[in-house]
Every structure is written in structure tokens, then in C-alpha cells.
Design goal:
With 549 residues, the chain is an alpha/beta fold. The chain contains 15 helices and 27 strands.
Length: 549
């Protein structure tokens, strides 16, 4: 058996793992990762590299999904463009995937099967069974994987919460896992997101108390921002509004869609008597209003950022408004979140974050919860997944403290191949696992020349030069020189001086150009080098030759 993580290691997001036997392949999750804003201009998301999978299309039996977060399902439309395979997913994830496929308009009609936790799913010679876990989205599961070489447990994203907001069905069900663990577990793959955090994660019950207190005690308009998939938070806020006689308006396309899906699946009530539409906001008592919106991560087109930029047609910040950011900031998003907060403060709002009150809890297990899972599963081998390298290493230390032998703990990189054979596990090679960048509907590698050019233009600007040449390139005239994003003196006199100098130097240097080089290439290279030296710049320079005879 081979276990190959293609994404999700030494990073937060882009989760994907391949389970491969001699005959069959099954994929676990297929998520997107978020690119830091200034890292690659114009690119915001990346997907896993499926080069290895494309080479083995005939072996692939399907994608198994643990839950419906973007870092676990976001890449599925792109992958189904290349691979015609079925998807097996929890109910909420099924609906979210269908929405994504509809929006992508890629004319594919994949088979999407909603899973049930007491069923076994036989995909070739690999058998999957699901056990429910508590996470920050309903219908989240871990996996028991029965393979020809032994059992593997994949935790999915999980935590232990004795009082989850959405009922007992959404506790991490250790007893269920114990019941289905009939044989020794060879490998435990467990998520590492909060492996550095001591103790236990905060219960949703504590968040409920804080949000209830805010909604009860603030006699002004309240705007709450959280993740669109945080259905439990939507329920807490909705219940508090009913309790304290407030009206609720949900703003943001993804949050409206997710709330509707959750209602249809029975995860939350309809709250029809509570809700108002965004176009009704200014027709009711503002001090009796709670607005729930997206944008807790400072996303460019999100509801909260539009409000902070004064770009929302229905909501303008007023003195006395209270803005509650009910989320923790994902690493890499600090700058844009702080920018939104500063704008809100300037407009007169009071801003409450998770640093001020317990208004958010992570959906990921802390140290003691991770220990509990290890002690329940008692694996021979341990592989920490889903996290940056420091998180993986911290999780490895936890496993070691729980009597897992150090030589049986594998801190992997994306693409490394784990080979399980004869009850032994070893790293056996590596497969392609690059970041595949998404630019609209186009996919490109991170080291593509286009990305290098984009970075150069982003940092240093661009100069466009048009040269008019005769048929033999003996007489060349600079007819146009334009700069974009380059700090130079663009007065008529200076631009004319630069054009005249370049023109003179080109025409005098052509006679000295190497005989083995095309004259067109010589002119372009010479012009580019001349301008960079003359202006002391690193800009991208594009030279166009127009032949007039």
C-alpha cells in the first residue's frame, strides 16, 4: 500500500491524500489553499498537483470527502475537469460541491453519493467506513480505511466538544470509532492544526454565552462577521436574536447559500419570523438589528470589507455600531483583517475580536484531544497531517509522549510516498506535488515564466518601446516609449532625450552586432539593456519592431 499526501503538509489548506493499492487508488479530500496577497500578484488560490493521478487514471475509484470546507472540497471542480470519477461525501459537503460545480459551469455531471456513517464503501480493494466528528461545519467525519495491508485511520478535521451547538449527533463519537475498530490500526493520520495549543479547545457553549451577552447588553446595531460555513455560529446568533427580541439580516452570497443548505438538511431552524432582507435594513429600528455577514478574514469582496469600504448600498457604519469578528485570523491574513478593522474604527464603529472576548472557538483539537485520539486508536505508525511543519513536529512530539516509538513517527512533505508492506512503513520516493495556481479558469505552475514576469511587473513596472525599422534594420526610429508603474521623469524633454539617445545608440551599434545573432533579437536586447542602465531600473521592458519596407 502507498499513502501519498499531495497537499496539506507544511501548509494550512490544500488537503489531499492518495491511498493506493496494487490495483486501485482512492483520493481523500481535494481542497484549495490560499496564496498570501503579496506573494503572487493576481493569484489568490492554489490547488493540488494531480500529475501523478493523471498518469494512473484507470486505477482511480473515486474521491472520499471528510467534510465541506473549502480546504477539503474547493479543488474538486478542477479535478473533475480532468478525471471522470465519483465523489462520496457527507450530506452538507454534497450540496456545497453541487453548488461549486454549478457555478463553475464546466459541463460535467459527476456522480455524487451522500454517505451514511454506518455503511461500508468498497472502492476496489479499499474499504472505507465513516465515524462522526465534531468540527466547525455540520456533517464532518473521520475515516477508517481497510486495505489489503492493514487498517488506516484518518482523523479528518476534529475536536472534542461535550456541548456542541448542533446536537449530540455532532460530537466526536469515540465510542462509534471503538466499535468499528475490530483489528489493529497500522497507521493513524491525524490533523495537526492546533498541535501547539495546550489543553482542550474551547466549547461552543462558551462562545454561546459571550455572543448572548453581547446581543443582550448592546442597545445599538450589531454587525457580526464569521465564516460562511460556521452554521453553529449562525444558530447561536439566531437563537440569541429570538431570545432578546432582535431582528436578523444575513448578508453575503456564500453565507445565505450555506444557511439555506443547512436549513434544508435540518441542521438549523428556518427562523422565518426573525429574518429580514438587506433591502429592508433601513426600514426598521437600527438599535434592534443584528447583521450577520462574511469577511472575517478580510476577503476582498466579502460583506464586512464592502461595509468597511463604504461600498454596501444598504449598510453604512454609524457612530455607536458594534462590529463583532467571530473568528480567529488565519495565518497570512493579518494585514487585510487589520486593514478592515482600522477602516471600521475610523467610521465610528466599536470592534470586538476574539482577543477581547470568547466569541470564537477553533474547530480543531488541542493537545489533550489529540492525545485522546492517539490513545483510542493505538496505532503502530503515526503520520501528523494538515498543518505547517512546526505543527506537524509538535504533533509528532505528542505522539511520542503517548508511547509511539520515535522511528514510527513520519513527518512528511507533500509528494513523499509512504510504503506499507509486511507491517513495515518507510518513505519510498516522491511524486510531483507543486502548487498549481488558479488564475480565473487557467491553471499554471508556480515556477512558470508568466509568474516570474508578473512579479517583475508588479514590483518594478513595465516600459513599452515601439521601433520603426527599414527592411534591412539599418535605420531605426523610436516612435513610442511608454512607462507604467515606473518612477521616471516623464516630461516631454526627458522622454525625447531618452528616445533620441536610444535611437542613436541602436543605429551606431547595429554594425557591431554579432553575425550569428538575428538582427531583430539584437535590437530588442540592446534596447532593453540600454534603458535599464540609462534609467537604473529593473522594469520589464517590451520592445516591438515595426518594419515599414
Amino acid at each position: 500500500m502507498k499513502i501519498i499526501p499531495i497537499g496539506g503538509l507544511d501548509e494550512v489548506g490544500k488537503n489531499m491524500t492518495i491511498i493506493e493499492s496494487d490495483k486501485d487508488i482512492v483520493i481523500i479530500d481535494a481542497g484549495i489553499g490560499f496564496i498570501k496577497k503579496k506573494e503572487i500578484p493576481g493569484i489568490e488560490i492554489a490547488i493540488p498537483d494531480i500529475t501523478y493521478l493523471e498518469e494512473k487514471k484507470q486505477k482511480i475509484k473515486g474521491i472520499i470527502v471528510t467534510h465541506g470546507h473549502e480546504d477539503h472540497i474547493g479543488a474538486i471542480p478542477f479535478i473533475l475537469d480532468s478525471l471522470s470519477i465519483p465523489v462520496y461525501a457527507p450530506r452538507m459537503a454534497c450540496e456545497l460541491i453541487r453548488k461549486k460545480l454549478y457555478r463553475s459551469r464546466n459541463n460535467i455531471s459527476p456522480k455524487i453519493f451522500p454517505i451514511k456513517e454506518n455503511n461500508e464503501y468498497k472502492l476496489g480493494d479499499i474499504v472505507f467506513e465513516f465515524f462522526p466528528v465534531c468540527h466547525s461545519i455540520p456533517d464532518s467525519y473521520g475515516l477508517l480505511i481497510n486495505t489489503p495491508c492493514g487498517n488506516i485511520v484518518h482523523s479528518g478535521d476534529f475536536k472534542f466538544d461535550k456541548n456542541p451547538t448542533i446536537g449530540n449527533d455532532y460530537k466526536t463519537n469515540i465510542n462509534h470509532l471503538k466499535r468499528i475498530l475490530k483489528d489493529e490500526v497500522m497507521i493513524l493520520m491525524s490533523e495537526s492544526t492546533n498541535a501547539e495549543e495546550e489543553g482542550y479547545s474551547i466549547s461552543d457553549e462558551e462562545v454561546k454565552k459571550s455572543i448572548n451577552s453581547i446581543i443582550k447588553s448592546h442597545n445599538n446595531r450589531i454587525i457580526i462577521s464569521t465564516f460562511a460555513s460556521q452554521i453553529s455560529r449562525t444558530k447561536i446568533i439566531s437563537d440569541a436574536c429570538i431570545k432578546y427580541n432582535k431582528r436578523l439580516c444575513i448578508v453575503g452570497k456564500s453565507m445565505i447559500e450555506n444557511t439555506k443548505i443547512a436549513k434544508n438538511l435540518g441542521h438549523i431552524s428556518s427562523y422565518e419570523e426573525l429574518m429580514i432582507r438587506p433591502d429592508q435594513i433601513n426600514n426598521i429600528n437600527q438599535n434592534n438589528l443584528v447583521i450577520l455577514t462574511t469577511g472575517s478574514q478580510g476577503e476582498k469582496q466579502s460583506g464586512l470589507v464592502r461595509i468597511a469600504n463604504n461600498n454596501d448600498k444598504n449598510i453604512q457604519i454609524r457612530d455607536g455600531d458594534t462590529v463583532v469578528i467571530s473568528a480567529s485570523t488565519i495565518p497570512g491574513n493579518e494585514v487585510q483583517v487589520n486593514e478592515a478593522i482600522n477602516k471600521l474604527l475610523k467610521l465610528g464603529a466599536k470592534v470586538i475580536t476574539d482577543k477581547d472576548q470568547t466569541i470564537h472557538t477553533s474547530g480543531h483539537a488541542h493537545k489533550n484531544e489529540l492525545k485522546e485520539l492517539i490513545n483510542t486508536v493505538k496505532p503502530k505508525f503515526f503520520v501528523p497531517v494538515h498543518g505547517e511543519i512546526k505543527m506537524q513536529m509538535a504533533h509528532g512530539k505528542i505522539a511520542e509522549s503517548e508511547n509511539i516509538n520515535q522511528e514510527n513517527i513520519f513527518i512528511l512533505e507533500n509528494g513523499e510516498v509512504l510504503l506499507l508492506k509486511d507491517k513495515k512503513l518507510e518513505i519510498n520516493g516522491k511524486v510531483p506535488a507543486e502548487n498549481i495556481l488558479v488564475d480565473g479558469k487557467n491553471l499554471i505552475y508556480e515556477d512558470d515564466v508568466i509568474i516570474k514576469e508578473r512579479n517583475q511587473i508588479y514590483k518594478n513596472g513595465i516600459i513599452l518601446v515601439t521601433i520603426l525599422s527599414d527592411s534591412k534594420y539599418e535605420i531605426n526610429k523610436i516612435v513610442d516609449l511608454k512607462s507604467y508603474g515606473v518612477i521616471i521623469d516623464d516630461s516631454y524633454e526627458n522622454i525625447k532625450f531618452i528616445k533620441d539617445s536610444l535611437e542613436k545608440n541602436i543605429n551606431s551599434s547595429i554594425k557591431k552586432q554579432p553575425k550569428n545573432k538575428k538582427i531583430e533579437n539584437f535590437i530588442k536586447e540592446y534596447s532593453s539593456n540600454f534603458l535599464k542602465q540609462k534609467l537604473d531600473i529593473k522594469s520589464k521592458i517590451i520592445v516591438s519592431l515595426v518594419n515599414h519596407g
